[in-house]
Design brief:
It is built from 3 helices and 2 strands. It is mainly α.
Length: 73
């Protein structure tokens, strides 16, 4: 099982609440920022960390990258 800090857990929960559980339902860092009411730098750092740990997937797109959950915690 992957160890997550409190901020990563919060971002994971926010992605889950936004329904970002499959590639067809990507959410941006801005979406997560608005829902979690946290600073964008905190959100992007946590999303990057979650992606590096293999918990979420980052999909590069033209305007903004999208994220979705790939591993249940």
């Amino acid at each position: 099982m992957v160890e997550l800090n409190d901020i990563e857990k919060m971002m994971y929960k926010t992605l889950s609440e936004l329904g970002a559980t499959k590639p067809e339902v990507l959410k941006t860092a801005d979406d997560v920022m608005k829902k979690s009411n946290r600073p964008k730098s905190m959100v992007t750092n946590a999303l990057t960390s979650l992606a590096n740990k293999g918990v979420i997937k980052r999909v590069a797109r033209e305007k903004a990258s999208g994220y979705y959950i790939v591993q249940a915690i």
